[in-house]
Every structure is written in C-alpha cells, then in structure tokens.
What we know:
Number of strands of chain A: 0
Oligomer: homodimer
Largest interface: A-B, 33 and 32 residues
CATH superfamily of chain A: Tetracycline Repressor, domain 2
Distance between the termini of chain A: 66 Å
Helix content of chain A: over 70%
Low-confidence stretches of chain A: 1-19, 136-143
Amino acid sequence: MKSKRKSAQNVPPREGSAAEGKRDRKKELTKDRILAAALELFREKGLEGTTTKEISQRAGIAEGTLFNYFRTKEDLALFFFQKETDDLIAWYQGNTHLAKASLPEKLFAIMHRQLEYLAPSEDFIGAVFFRSLQPHSKLNPLSLESQQLRLRYLMFIRGILAEAEEKGEIPPLGDLGSYGVGLFYLGVVAHWLNDTSEGKQKTLAVLDRVLHGAMRIARKEGWEW
Amino acid sequence: MKSKRKSAQNVPPREGSAAEGKRDRKKELTKDRILAAALELFREKGLEGTTTKEISQRAGIAEGTLFNYFRTKEDLALFFFQKETDDLIAWYQGNTHLAKASLPEKLFAIMHRQLEYLAPSEDFIGAVFFRSLQPHSKLNPLSLESQQLRLRYLMFIRGILAEAEEKGEIPPLGDLGSYGVGLFYLGVVAHWLNDTSEGKQKTLAVLDRVLHGAMRIARKEGWEW
DNA sequence: CATAAAAAATGAGTACACTCATTTTCTGTT
DNA sequence: AACAGAAAATGAGTGTACTCATTTTTTATG
Lengths: 225, 225
C-alpha cells in the first residue's frame, strides 16, 4: 500500500535501549487506532452489535490484523479494564488530598471514580466485567490476563487497607480484607448496572451507607470470626 | 389464546389433567432429548466446546429444531439453573429436619447442596452463571428469563429469612437481606469455581465461618446502618 | 545498495450460532 | 375418511469471529 522506502542512512537503533525503530512506532500506532475505533464502536453499538470487520475498517487495517493484536474481541474489550485499573492507581497516588481521608472516604472515592469512568460504556461493560470472573479452565485457556488484572486490583486495595491498619482505623484483616472489598466492588457494579435512578444516586447512597456501616462493624467486632 | 378444545364426540386424551395429545407428548419428548444431549455434551466438552450441530445430532433432530425450543445456546445452558432452583426449593420444603435448624445451618445446607448439584458441571457452569448477572439491555434483549430466575431465588431466600425473623434469630432485614444473601452466594460460587483444594473444603470452611460470623454481627449490631 | 531474515499485514477461507422459507406431521371438523 | 388449518420439523442459507498460508514491510548485515 505505501511505497515509502527507506534509503539507507546508517543510523542503527541501539539494542536493548528504549530507542524505538520505525517498526515499533508503527505497531503502537496501529494498536492505538484499533483501540480508539473499538471504544467508539462499543459505546455506539455495544459489544455484540459491533463486528470485528467494522472495527478494522474504522481503524484502517485488514480484519486479520486485528487478531495479531488481540486474541479475541473479548480481549480487546477487556483491555479497557486494564487501562481503567492503571489509571485508577495513578489517580489515587497523585491525589494527596485523599491520602489523609478516612478509609470509607477513600473507598467511596475510589469506587465512585470507577463508576464515573465506566459510565459512558455502561451498555457494553457488563458483558465483559462479569465474564472476567470466570476461572482459568482447560477448555477455555484465555482468562489469564483477567486473572492478572484482578490480582493487580487486589494488591492495590490491600495497600489501602494496610494504610488504614497502620493508622489504627481497622484491625488487621489479612488478604481476606482485600478479597472482601473486591467482592463488594463486584456487588456495587452489579447494582450500578441495574440502577435506573437518576444519576445512579441509589447506588451511591447504598455505597456510602454500607461502607460506613462496615467500618463500625469492623471496629466493634474486630473481625475475629 | 384460543379455548376451543376437545369435543364430546371425540375420544379425548386421558393423560393426566392437562389433556395431552400426541403433539404435546412428542414435544416434551423432544425437549427432554435436547436437554439430555446438551447436558451430556456440556459436561464432556464444555459450553464453548460443544456445537449446536452436535447437540441436535445426539438428540436426533435437525439443527433448526433446537432453536424452536431454545432461543440461544446460552438459554439452553441457563435452563439447568432453572431446574436447579426448582429442585432446590422442592428439596428444602420436603426436608422436615432442616425446618428446625438455625439460620446459618439452613443457609449452609442450601448452599452446600447447590454446590454439590453444580459440581459435575463445574467446567461449564461459570460461563453461564456470571452471564446471568447482566442486566436487560436494548442491545441484548435476552436475559428476561434469568431475571425471573433470580427473582424466584430471592423470594425463596426471603421466605427463609422471614422464618428466622419470626423466631427472633435476626432483626428484620427487609429485601436487603435476601439481596445480600444472593450476592453472598455469588461470591461463594466465584470462590468455589477457583477453589482447587481437595473436595472444595476451603470454600466450605469459609462458608461456614462467614455465615456464623455474620449471624453474630446481625444479632449484636442489629443491622441498623 | 543488495540481500536475507524477521516482523507485520493481509484477506480468502473455516466453523459456528442462528434464521427462515418450505415441508411434514398432527388435530378438529364434516 | 377426507380435508384444511395449525404446529412442528427441516436444512440450506447468512453473518460473524477467528485462522493461516501468503505477501509486504522493516531491519540487519556484507
């Protein structure tokens, strides 16, 4: 398609350094274009309503190329969760104001932000979100990435709980704590997806109430069971 | 619906009260054969690994016929959950021993039974289970049945919680109680699917501990948040 | 610059879930 | 029994996610 041929100027890229050759630059560009096209279309027409043909057309590549970058359409959709988690962690770490807040305030802020982030994709997010829960299986050897994703999220939460432990806000909970928060987040998203109240206020109200209630329980009971 | 039925002149079908003709009998038979074939194959090769062609072949029907009985392959898989819930309710109601047990014992027994029931289908059950959580959407106007299914389950749980309230085991929780139990069950299944311990003992142990712990919290704190 | 090897892109081909116009089977009526 | 209309079964056809042998582009090396 393109006829731009490189006349040899001897400037070889360094091995092992961060220097990017033409190949890498192009590759990244293509990936970005696929992602942009996919996100647009998923939001427009949902996950099922979008074909891989459309995505590749909008991205300006052949259909087969898409599958050189993502194993499946689902994987492609899953990528946005990867990004969400990364962005979330970066956002939290760059937010000095939050670092001084109480634990329920932190958790509320985190989950609220995640919901806001997901809002424009609400119509297609459920399909991917719940599928990412399925375990690895002989028959379906995909979900390794989602496994990693979940792990990253759990470790992030564990860090936040550890902070609260140090400040004496809560007793030591161990891994069960972050697992519980993760599960709770799952419930929040399920509720949020089904919430038809204006601006999803119902979900936010429940979220706030439950977080503070859980704090009280954790303090009084000590989670000794 | 039309109500023109059997006439006095004809020999009416005598099978049961529901007046079954040859047509109805055949229809039921076909449905049963599809279900039997599907369950076998899903357990053998998983949900993805089984084609609708195989199912119809094993059931001895044309491929198109399958879709006269079930809108999608997923619907077909979902049917086993329907059945599970019905069987569970019947089992509970026929179990006089359980009626006298404490709430956590009841819930443990119920969930334990469900896990046992699902065990032979473990490899394909996750795929369906989590998908049934997705809300109704314009783009994906299926999940009405799974909505109904969930509702039936929630009402069953609400009945059990109501019993416990009457006996003074727990304070009134309202609908939030059964919703919470349902969500908890979700977490249990997620844990169970990922549990590689011998005989899934780890899940059962956590289940037992958490149920009793939650009872203690409910009694002492009164769930007033 | 020429060449070869590696990486990336390509698109016709495949397998699958699902549709639908047509055919076959059943039922009530005369 | 004969018929007509309804219900059910059929299987060739359709659209789509994904594969893979081949072609094109990029890089490394003399």
